[in-house]
Amino acid sequence: MNDAAALLEARKGEVGGPYAWYVLGVLVLVYVLNFVDRQIISILAEDIKADLGVTDADMGFLYGTAFGVFYSLFGIPLGRLADMWYRGRLMTIGLSVWSAMTALSGFAQNFGQLAAARIGVGIGEATASPCAFSMISDYFPKHKRATALAIYSSGLYLGGGLSLFIGGIIVQSWNNAFPGGGPLGLVGWQAAFLAVGLPGLLLALWVITLREPLRGMSEGILSPPEPSPWPKFFTELSSVIPPFTLVQAARTGGRAFAVNVAGLIVVVLGALGMIALTGDALQWGAIGIGCYSVFSWSQSLKRRDPPAYQLIWGTPTFLLSILGFGSIAFVTYAVSFWSAPYAIRTFGADPAIVGLIIGGVGAGGGFIGVIAGGRLADWAKSRWQAGDILVASLGVLIPAPLMFIVYTTESLTTFYLAFIPMATVNSCWVGIAAATSQNLVLPRMRGAATSTYFLGTTLVGLGLGPYFAGKMSLVSGSLGTGILSLLAAAPVTVVCLWYVWRRLPQAEATRVERAAAAGEVFAAKA
C-alpha cells in the first residue's frame, strides 16, 4: 500500500462521522451569516430609497447586480484557490472581508458608496460556498451528499429570514429612539448594517479551527496537494479580471488573443444594445463585464486544465443544469428581495411585522423545503438514476400558481397564507442543484464546479432577477406586475431540466473516463 492509499485508509472513518456533522454545523452558521449580510438590504429598501433618492431598478442593482457580478467574477479564481489551498483558511479570510464591508455599508452616505460596499461584500462572500461545497463533499459520501448540501443550503433561508426579522426590529427601534439620527448621525438602516456585520469577525475565529479533510476521501479518489497554489491563483485571477484578461491571452498566442477580443466585441455590442434599450448603463455595463470575464476564464481554463474544462464547460449536461437552476434562481432571488417591500408598499404593513412574518416564513418554510428536497432527492436518486432532477422540478411547477395569488390578492392575510407554501416548495431545488454540480466533476475540481454553478445562480439569478422585477415595476407602475413578469423564465427552466434528466446518468458514469481522456492523472483510487 503506497503512502497516499495508507493516508486515505487512515482517515476514511471520518467520512459521515461525528466530526463531519460538526463541520457541517459550523458551515451552516457561516452560510446563515452570509445571507443575513446579503439579504438584509431587502427590509431596508424602502428607507434606503427615501434617504438616498433611488428607484426600484437602482435597488435591484444594489441588491443583485452590484453584489452578484463581482461575487461571480471573484468566485472563479477563489473557487480554483479552494481546489488548491486550505479551504478553512480561505473561508476565514472571506468571512472577515464580507463582514467588514457589511459594517462599512452602515456609513454609506450616497448610492455610489453603498454600491462600492456591496461589491466588497460580494467579493468576500465568493469564498464561502466553493470552500464549503468542497469540504462537505469530502466529508460525506455520495449517497448522503444531497442531504448534507441541502442542510448547508438551509442557511440561505435561515439567514434570509433572520435578516428580515433583525433588520425590521433594528430599523424601527433605532428610528423610534433617534428620530433625527443617532450616534455618529446614523439612521436605522445604517445601524442595521453595523449590527449584522460585526459578529462575522468573531465567527471567523471559529472557522479557522476546522480540520481540513483529504480531497476525495469520501470517494476513494485522493487528489494530490498543489505544491504552488498562489502563482496559479494569480494566473486564474488574471484570466477573469479585465484588462489583465487581454494581457494573458496575448501571452498565450495569436489565436487565443483573437478569440478573446472577438468575445469582448460581442459582449460590448450586446451591452450597448441593452443600455440603449433600457437606459441603465451601470446594470448592463456590470453584466457585460461579468459575461466577458466568464468567457475569458473558460477559454483560459481550456488551455491550462483540459480535464477540468472537459467536465465543466465541455459537458452539456453540466452547462444546461447551470442554466436551468440559474433560471429558477432568477425568480427566487427576486421574490426573496421584493416580497417585503411589496407588503410594506401595497398593504401599508408595519416593517417590523413584515420582517417577523415574511422572515419567519422564509426561514422556517425555506429550511423545511430545502431539507425535505434534499432527503427526497437522495431517496429518488437511489431508485431512479436522475430522480433528483424530477424532485427539483417541483420547485418550478408548484410555486408558479401560488405566485399569482400572492401578488394579486388585495388581502394581507391571503398574501401571508399563500406565501407560506410558495416559500417552502420554492426552496426544494437548492441542495439538488449543489449536489448535481459536485457529482459531475472530480474531487479536485469541486471548487471550480461550485464557482461555475454560482455563475448561473448569481450572474443570471441575482444579477438579472431583482433588477428585472424592479425595472418592470418601474415600467408598469406596479411592483406586483414586475414580480409576476419573472415567470417568463419558466419555459427555459423546464427545457433545461428535461435535458439534464435525460443525460445526467451517463454524464456521471463517464466522468472519470472523460477526465482521463483529457489528461487527468490519479494519485490513488480505492
Automatic annotation (TrEMBL):
TM region(s), chain numbering: 19-36, 57-78, 149-174, 186-208, 256-275, 281-297, 318-340, 352-377, 389-409, 415-435, 447-469, 481-501
Residue ranges constituting the Major facilitator superfamily (MFS) profile domain according to the UniProt record: 23-508
Primary localization class, coarse: membrane
Example GO molecular function: transmembrane transporter activity
InterPro entries membership: MFS (IPR011701), MFS_dom (IPR020846), MFS_spinster-like (IPR044770), MFS_trans_sf (IPR036259)
Swiss-Prot/TrEMBL keywords: Membrane, Transmembrane, Transmembrane helix, Transport
Record's bilayer topology term: Multi-pass membrane protein
Subcellular localization(s) per the UniProt record: Membrane
Record's GO cellular component terms: membrane
Top-level taxonomic group: Bacteria
Name of the protein described by the UniProt record: MFS family permease
Species per Swiss-Prot/TrEMBL record: Sphingosinicella soli
